[in-house]
Amino acid sequence: MNEPYDAIVVGARCAGSPVAMLLARAGHRVLVVDRTALPADTVSTHYMQQYGLARLASWGLLDDVLATGATPITRMTISYDDAVISGFADPIDGITATLAPRRTALDPVLLRAAEQAGAEVRLGVTLRDLIVEDGVVRGVRLQTADGELVEERARVVVGADGSRSRVAEAVGAQTYEVVEPACFIYYSYWDAIPDTGFHSRIGLGQQQVGLWPTNDDRTLVAVMRTRDRYADFRRDVEKNFHEVLDQVVPDLAEQVRAGEQAERFTGIRYPDNYYRVSAGPGWALVGDAGYHKDPFTGKGISDAFTHAELLAGKIAEGLAGRPMGDVLAEYTAERDAGTKGAYAFTTMISDLDLTPQLQGLFRAVSGNEAATRQFLSMVGGGISGEEFFAPANVGQIMAAV
Questions:
Q1: Domain containing 226 — which CATH number?
Q2: Are residues 250 and 386 in the same domain?
Q3: Which of 269, 285, 311 marks a domain boundary?
C-alpha cells in the first residue's frame, strides 16, 4: 500500500494549486490531481481584485503573472444611468493596479509553483470515488487517462473542483443561503481596441457591458442580460451581442466594431449563488466548490486565493496536532463571516435592477472623489461591504451631495 499523503487536493486551478503549494511549502506531503490536462482555458472573468493580487505578491508569484503579458489596470469606470464612478482605489497592501490574465496564463503559474514547492501533480486523472471508513474520508479512488484505477490515502481530502464538485457530491455537501441567478453572459476577445482600463456599465432594460484588457494586448468584451432573454439571445449571438453594446455603451461599441474579434463567443448561464457545507470528517471544499456567487463583482479568483490560504493554514494546524475537525470548522466559519457582506452586495446588484436607494447612493458617490476611492477600495478588497454600507458612512456620503 502506498504511504498516505498529508493532503490530496482534487482540482489544480486557482483554488487547488495554492492550497497544494502552501501545504507543500510548509513541508507536508501533498498530491494534487485534475481531470484536465492543463493548461487549458475555462470560463472566467479573469479579473483579480487588489486583495487577490496581494496574495500573489505574498506568495512570490505576482511577477510571474505579470510576465505572462497581462495588462495592468489602473483606472476603473463603473456606471449606471447618469451615475459614473470613475477612478481607482488607494493602494491595498501595496498593490496599485489590478489584472485580468487569461486562465491559460494564470493557472500554469499557480500549478508550477505547487510543483516547485514539492507537491506531486497528476493531470488527466479523474476522481471516481472517495475512500470512506467509519464515516471519515480517508482517501480517493482515481482513474488515470489509460483507464487504470488507483487508490491513494490522505489525512484530509480537499475538493477544489468547481461548482459541480465531485468531492461535494460524494460527501453529500448541502448548499445554504442559495440565491437563484438572474443573468447570463456572453463574451469574447478583441484585438486593436484602445486600452481604456476597466469598464462596467449597467444599462436600462437590465443589461450590462464589461470591457477590460487581458493578455497580449487583447480586450475581453462581455455582455449580460437577464435569463428570460437567453433563448432569444442564442438565436443570433453576434447580432444580439452588438445590440447590447449599442444600447449600453454606444461610444465603446464603435471601438469594438473598429477592432478585430480574435476568438469565438463564449456563453454561460450562471449556476446558483450559494454556500456549501465545506468541511466534514476528513474533507474540505474550497473555491467555487464551497462558495459561489455571480461573477458580476469579479471576486471569484481573489476569493479563491484568500480561502485557499485560509484553508491551507487551518489544515497545517490540524496536521501539527490540533483536532482536524475543529480547524476545518473554523475555516468555514471564518470564510462565511468574511464574505457575508460581499455576498449580499453581489446578489443585490447582479440582477441589474438597482433599488432607488442604491441608485441614489451611486449618484452621490459619482460626484465625490473621496467616496469614489472608498467605493473602489471596497470593490478592491481594502474595506468590507459592511464598512462601506454602514448607515453612518452612507449618511455621510449622501449628506455631501
A1: 3.30.9.10
A2: no
A3: 269
Encode 123-162: b = buried (16+ Cβ within 10 Å), e = exposed.
bebebeebbbeeeebbbbebbeeeeeeeebbbbbbbbbbb
Residue 48 DSSP code: B
Cell of 373: 476611492
**Dist. CA 51–CA 378, nearest whole Å:** 10
Q: What is the mean pLDDT of each run of 10 residues along the chain (401 residues)?
A: 89 98 98 95 93 98 97 95 92 95 97 98 97 97 94 98 97 97 95 91 92 95 95 97 96 94 93 96 98 91 97 98 97 96 89 89 93 93 90 93 79
Amino acid making up residue 310: L
- Taking the alpha carbons at both ends of the chain, their separation in whole angstroms is 70
Residues contacting 65, CB < 8 A, separation 6+: 56, 99, 101, 105, 106, 109
Pairwise CA distance, residues 22 & 310, whole Å: 10
Q: Are strands 5-10 and 30-34 parallel, antiparallel or unpaired?
A: parallel
Return d(Cα 334, Cα 346) in angstroms, integer: 19
Full DSSP string of 72-141: PB--EEEEETTEEEEE-PPPBTTB--BB---HHHHHHHHHHHHHHHT-EEEES-EEEEEEEETTEEEEEE
Cis-peptide, bond into residue 101, ω within 30° of zero: no
Q: Does 90 reside within a domain?
A: no
Helix (H) or strand (E) holding 152: strand 149-159
Tell me how far apart the alpha carbons of residues 220 and 176 are, in angstroms, rounded to a whole number: 32
> What are the residue ranges of helices labelled H in 215-320?
230-235, 237-248, 250-258, 300-319
* pLDDT computed for residue 367 by the predictor: 86
DSSP category for residue 297? G
Task: Show Cβ contacts of residue 368 under 8 Å, excluding neighbours closer than 6 positions.
Answer: 397, 400, 401
Positive or negative, the CA dihedral 309, 313, 319, 324 is negative
Q: Which three cell numbers stand for residue 96?
A: 496599485
Domain of 151, CATH number, reads 3.50.50.60
Contact 225, 204 (CB under 8 A): no
Q: Which three cell numbers stand for residue 135?
A: 464515516
In b/e form, how buried is each residue of 281-294, taking b as 16+ CB within 10 angstroms? bbbbbbbbbbbbbb
Q: Minimal CA–CA distance to 291: which of 348, 342, 326, 330?
A: 342
If asked whether residues 128 and 174 sit together in one domain, one would say yes
DSSP lists the bridge partners of residue 149 as 143
Q: What are phi and psi of 302, to 5 degrees?
A: -65, -40
